[in-house]
Design a protein that fits this description.
repeat; 508 residues; 6-stranded mixed β-sheet; binds adenosine-5'-triphosphate; Rossmann fold
Length: 508
């Protein structure tokens, strides 16, 4: 049997949008098959249909050659289909093993024996090189490890058709390399994989074939080895994508944001997350903050935006100290923030897109006047953001935000914050989860802000992004400033080395 899964002419409509418009995808046994498409193209919907979370309006699914009807995820499991979602579904105060057996029916009359379950978890972990400790608590392990627990959960249920939905979006570069090895091991052991990712580099590194969809429609399936990244990008977006941004030379002006000797506590008792950290960002400058995840970047950003109190030091905006101002007062003074976690901090998912676009400024004129909301002004303002940033939503600004695809939610936040025209924009992972076309657009808008004399703090785990957008790069390690270098006179190797704590000159 050549194909383990055949999804034929799958159609799924939501109010105002055809998410899947007769899509066909065929997965061969033993291959890694990438599924590529713009934000909102319909990838998650298609995979949710395969996993039994949604029902197709029409079309056919065959598994191992047989017609099947996948009415819910239990049926998918019985057919050997497993899925690792973008947002993990683990219970934090349970152990790895407890999470893995959670929801499994005990065999008639027998309770599940945790000890033998832990033993089997260990065996599977060793067989696939997952390195998971069965008795560790989820709250104590890294995000990369949590993902491996999700992988183990599928393997424990004997899944051999594995769906990964943007698995690398939450991982550090090292964890990405490890995941690539794990996926290759899985294939060696006879599994077949569907991989959703926006990163063409990853598709090139692991996938055998790639199916491309655009606006719900099937565009084609290509052999990855003989197709270039540019060709795949063009199939996906429908136009040529430039992988570089144009950044004109510019002399930076006066310092807008100044951080002096800042120290911030970590959420772990007795530990400082940021230690005596100082830098400034000038008018017309992008300062990149590079570091391995968890080295104090989040706390630094929280301290500047007012989400977390500082322990000592000073933060000044346009010459005025803001260290003890509230979040809203800081926004009103000219700080905007694209947060790390769009679902927790960025958006209220049950509000409409329109409401979310004015969430920080609805009490200003013209959006409200003497306590009355001006719905027309709010809609017009929101519609402009949605149009400029190409936020695709079935019912435009009236769509409930939860119904937007992940990437479109991200574009909405980025648009909202840039549109505030802030003096300082704190942009944390601004392009996480975005397709290459949208990344290109957001990069252009960030550079435009800089060219207009605004200051930007760019926090990103993508070194390529830091190096191509920043004017200067500050490197953080273990909460300390390792150094600030000019982007023009450095490279990935040097910044990578500094991220491990080695100062410039230390190696001479
Ligand atoms: N439950 C829902 N209700 C209404 N519309 C929905 C729902 N789920 C998805 N959609 C719409 O269907 C379209 C496809 O969304 P989907 O999440 O499948 O895209 P995607 O390709 O996975 O995007 P991304 O790369 O941004 O994650 C989008 O326009 C989205 O707004």
């Amino acid at each position: 049997m050549e194909y383990v899964v055949e999804m034929l002419d799958i159609r799924k409509e939501f109010p105002g949008v055809i998410a899947n418009d007769n899509i066909t995808l065929r997965l061969k046994k033993g291959e890694i098959h990438a599924l590529l498409g713009e934000n909102g193209a319909g990838k998650s919907t298609l995979m949710s249909i395969l996993f039994g979370l949604y029902q197709a309006d029409s079309g056919k699914i065959r598994v191992n050659g047989k017609d099947v009807s996948i009415s819910n995820p239990n049926v998918a499991n019985e057919l050997g289909i497993g899925m690792v979602h973008q947002h993990f579904k683990l219970v934090h105060n349970f152990t790895v093993t407890e999470n893995i057996i959670l929801g499994m029916e005990p065999k008639a009359g027998l309770s599940i024996d945790i000890k033998s379950a832990a033993k089997r978890v260990k065996e599977i972990s060793e067989q696939y090189g997952l390195n998971v400790e069965p008795n560790a608590k989820i709250e104590d392990v890294s995000v990369g490890m949590q993902q491996r627990v999700e992988i183990l959960k599928m393997l424990y249920r004997n899944a051999d058709i594995l769906i990964f939905d943007e698995p690398t979006a939450v991982l550090t570069p090292q964890e990405i390399d490890d995941l690539i090895k794990i996926m290759k091991n899985l294939i060696k052991e006879g599994k077949s994989i569907i991989l959703i990712t926006h990163k063409l580099k990853e598709i090139k590194a692991v996938a055998d074939r790639c199916t491309v969809i655009r606006r719900g429609k099937y565009i084609g399936t290509v052999d990855v080895e003989s197709t270039s990244k540019a060709q795949m990008a063009e199939m996906m977006v429908g136009r040529e994508v430039l992988f570089t941004v144009d950044k004109p030379e510019k002399k930076a002006g006066e310092a807008i944001l100044k951080v002096d000797n800042l120290s911030v506590k970590s959420s772990r008792e007795g530990v400082m997350a940021v230690k005596n950290f100082s830098f400034e960002i000038k008018e017309g400058e992008i300062l990149g903050l590079a570091g391995v995840e968890g080295n104090g970047q989040s706390e630094l950003v929280e301290a500047i935006t007012g989400l977390k109190p500082i322990t000592s030091g000073k933060i000044t905006l346009n010459g005025k100290e803001i260290s003890s101002l509230s979040i809203r007062e800081r926004i009103n003074s000219g700080i905007a923030h694209i947060p790390e976690d769009r679902q927790k901090r960025g958006l209220v998912l049950d509000y409409t897109v329109g409401q979310n676009m004015v969430i920080e400024i609805y009490d200003r004129k013209p959006f409200s006047d003497r306590g009355l909301l001006n719905h027309k002004a709010i809609s017009e303002y929101a519609e402009k953001i949605v149009e400029d940033f190409d936020v695709r939503a079935g019912q435009g600004v009236d769509s409930i935000t939860r119904s937007l695809s992940g990437g479109n939610q991200q574009k909405a936040i980025v648009g909202r914050e840039i549109e505030l025209k802030p003096d300082v924009l704190i942009a944390v992972q601004p392009t996480r989860g975005l397709d290459v076309g949208s990344i290109e657009y957001i990069h252009r808008r960030l550079i435009e802000q800089r060219n207009n004399g605004k200051a930007i703090l760019l926090v990103s785990l993508e070194l390529d992004e830091i190096l191509s957008l920043s004017d200067r790069i500050a490197i953080i390690n273990n909460g300390e400033l390792i150094g600030i270098v000019n982007a023009k006179d450095t490279n990935e190797n040097e910044v990578g080395l500094m991220m491990t704590g080695i100062k410039r000159g230390d190696t001479d």
